[in-house]
Amino acid sequence: MATATYPPPPPYYRLYKDYLEDPKSAPEPPPPIEGTYVCFGGTYTTSDVLPSLEEQGVRQLYPKGANVDFKKELRSLNGELQLHILELADILIERPSQYARRVEEISTVFKNLHHLLNSLRPHQARATLIHILELQIERRKEAVEDIKKRREEARRLLNESLATLDDQ
Prior knowledge:
Radius of gyration: 32 Å
Mean pLDDT: 91
Number of strands: 2
Structural class: mainly alpha
Strand content: under 5%
Order of helices and strands: EEHHH
Helix content: 55-70%
Distance between the termini: 83 Å
Largest sheet: 2 strands, antiparallel
């Protein structure tokens, strides 16, 4: 019994049989997906907009608006998280049956922290890109300086060689 290591190619490979002679004979690629689509049972969207906490059904614990002091709010939420965790420990010791409300409050604080951090992602991406571009510029300047040094060294050697030939 003969078996193949890989399955045969899908039948649409025949659409590309004349591609080398006539590249326009191949079908055009499908258009990009826009809007919503389903992948592995989940519905996704192609827009990269961070949904608000209200859209996600979560109570927002920091002020709304564009002028949010992220550092201050992150520190505040971190302190609040620590307080809720300590309160949860106390409740688990004293009244273990009433822990659910504290766990929900901790979950809300975590979701707010996560949302604040995600809203900083575009800034982080810009800063990372700027850093990468600055490193590239620095490397290219170093390469130019290295080429200039080697050029000067080659000129010096050439001048020495010419002077030696002139002396003979």
